[in-house]
Design brief:
alpha/beta; Rossmann fold; 7-stranded parallel beta sheet; 10 helices; 13 strands; 40% helix; binds nicotinamide-adenine-dinucleotide; binds uridine-5'-diphosphate
C-alpha cells in the first residue's frame, strides 16, 4: 500500500483548511475507498481517528497501513445498530456506493442510509459533535436540469432499482435537516459527484475501475447503452480536500453543497481516454443500457467555490494516469501471487 502524498498544489491551501486544533474524528465507512483516504488525511493533520466499519464493501487492507499509528483505531460495527462514540467531528461515509454493490442488498442499502443517519445523528446529539454527511449526486436522479445546482429537487424514480440508494440518501438528507431544525445538531451535507482514484476495488463495478481493469487485461471495454450518457469525474484527493474544508467551515455553512469536478464527458470518451492511457488492445463493446441510468450529470460548484474557496485541481488525465498506475500494481501483485 502506498503512503499518502498530498497532491501538488495542496501544500499551501491545506494550511487554510486545517481543522482547528487536534480533534477526535469518527469516520463511519472509514475502511472504504473514500473513507480510507479521509482517515489518512485526518491522521496526517494530527487528529485522532476512529474508523467505524462493517467491512461489507470496504476492506481492512485499505487501512492496514494506518494501524501502526497510535492515533488510529478501528471499530467493527454496523451503522444500522446504535452506537455511542465520543468524538467532536463525525463523517458519515458508511453506505455501499457502486450500483452493483447497492443493488445486491437493496433493503440493506436503504436501511444503512436511513438507520445509519438516525444512529449517527443520535450519537452527535448526545456528544455535541459536528456531523458531516456524504450525500450524492443521485439526489438529482436522471436530471432535467444541467448543470445540477443544489436548489434543484431532482427527478428520482422511487420504485426503480436505484431507488434503494437514491431514496435512502434523500431520506438521510431529510433526517439531517430535521435533526438540525428540531434538535440543533450541527450538520453539514455534501453531495458527492462521481469520484475515482486508488483503492477503488477491482470488482466494484463502477465505470472507471471497470474500464481501467478491462483495458489493462486487454479485455473488451463494456459500455452500457450508447455511451452518450455523461458524467463528471473528480479525483479522490480533490474530493477529500473539499470535505476537509467543508468540515472546517463555520456552523452556518451546512449545505447541501455539491462537491465534484464540473468537467463533463461522455462514457464513450472516457473509454477512449483510458484506452489511450493504457496502450490497450481492448475493443469497445456495447451492452444494454441500465434501467434509470442518468443521461447527464455535471455539478454546478459555484457554492463550494464561494463558501469553501474550493475547486478541483487534478485534471482528468492526470488523475486517471495515477489510477491506472494503482490498478497496474494491484494486477501485477495478483499475477505474482498466482505464480507462487
Ligand atoms: P465504499 O463502498 O468503498 O465505502 C463505503 C464503506 O462503508 C465501506 O467501507 C463499507 O464497508 C462501509 N459500510 C457499508 N455499509 C455499512 C454499514 N451498514 N455499517 C458500517 N459500515 C458500512 O464506497 P465509497 O465510494 O468510498 O463511498 C463512500 C461514501 O460516499 C458512501 O456513503 C457513498 O454513498 C458516498 N458517495 C460516493 C461517491 C463516489 O463516487 N465514490 C459518489 C457519491 C456518494
Ligand atoms: N458504465 C458503463 N460500463 C461499465 C460501468 C458503468 O458504461 O462497465 C456506465 C453506467 O451505465 C453509467 C456510467 O458508466 O452511465 C457511470 O456508472 P457508475 O456505475 O460508475 O456510476 P453511476 O454514476 O451510474 O452511479
Amino acid at each position: 500500500m502506498r503512503s499518502f502524498v498530498p497532491s501538488e498544489g495542496y501544500s499551501e491551501i491545506s494550511k487554510v483548511s486545517a481543522l482547528q486544533g487536534v480533534r477526535t474524528v469518527l469516520v463511519n465507512g472509514g475502511a472504504g475507498f473514500l473513507g480510507s483516504h479521509l482517515c489518512e488525511r485526518l491522521l496526517h493533520r494530527g487528529h485522532r481517528v476512529i474508523c467505524l466499519d462493517n467491512f461489507s464493501t470496504g476492506r481492512r487492507s485499505n487501512v492496514d497501513h494506518l494501524l501502526s499509528n497510535a492515533r488510529f483505531h478501528i471499530v467493527d460495527h454496523d451503522v444500522r445498530q446504535p452506537f455511542d462514540i465520543e468524538a467532536s467531528l463525525i463523517f458519515n461515509f458508511a453506505s455501499p456506493a457502486s450500483p452493483p454493490d447497492y443493488q445486491r442488498d437493496p433493503v440493506g442499502t436503504l436501511l444503512t442510509n436511513v438507520l445509519g443517519a438516525v444512529n449517527t445523528l443520535d450519537c452527535a446529539r448526545k456528544t455535541g459533535a459536528t456531523v458531516v454527511q456524504s450525500s450524492t449526486s443521485e439526489i438529482y436522479g436522471d436530471p432535467n436540469q444541467s448543470p445540477q445546482r443544489e436548489t434543484y429537487c431532482g427527478n428520482v424514480n422511487p420504485i426503480g432499482p436505484r431507488g434503494c440508494y437514491d431514496e435512502g440518501k434523500r431520506s438521510a438528507e431529510t433526517l439531517f435537516f430535521d435533526y438540525h431544525r428540531t434538535y440543533g445538531v450541527d450538520i453539514k451535507v455534501g453531495r458527492i459527484f462521481n469520484t475515482y482514484g486508488p483503492r477503488m476495488r477491482l470488482d466494484d463495478g463502477r465505470v472507471v475501475s471497470n474500464f481501467i481493469v478491462q483495458a489493462l487485461r486487454n479485455d473488451d471495454l463494456t459500455i452500457y447503452g450508447d455511451g452518450e450518457q455523461t458524467r463528471s469525474f473528480c479525483y479522490v484527493d480533490d474530493l477529500v480536500e473539499g470535505f476537509l474544508r467543508f468540515s472546517a467551515a463555520g456552523s452556518a455553512c451546512i449545505g447541501p453543497i455539491n462537491l465534484g469536478n464540473p468537467l463533463e464527458i461522455t462514457v464513450r470518451r472516457l473509454a477512449e481516454i483510458i484506452l489511450e492511457l493504457t496502450n490497450s488492445r481492448s475493443r469497445i463493446v456495447h451492452l444494454p443500457r441500465v434501467t434509470d441510468d442518468p443521461r447527464q450529470r455535471r455539478p454546478d460548484i459555484s457554492k463550494a467555490m464561494t463558501e469553501l474557496d474550493w475547486q478541483p485541481l487534478v485534471g482528468l488525465e492526470t488523475g486517471l494516469a495515477r489510477t491506472v498506475d494503482y490498478f497496474d500494481g494491484v494486477l501485477a501483485g495478483e499475477e505474482k501471487a498466482e505464480a507462487i
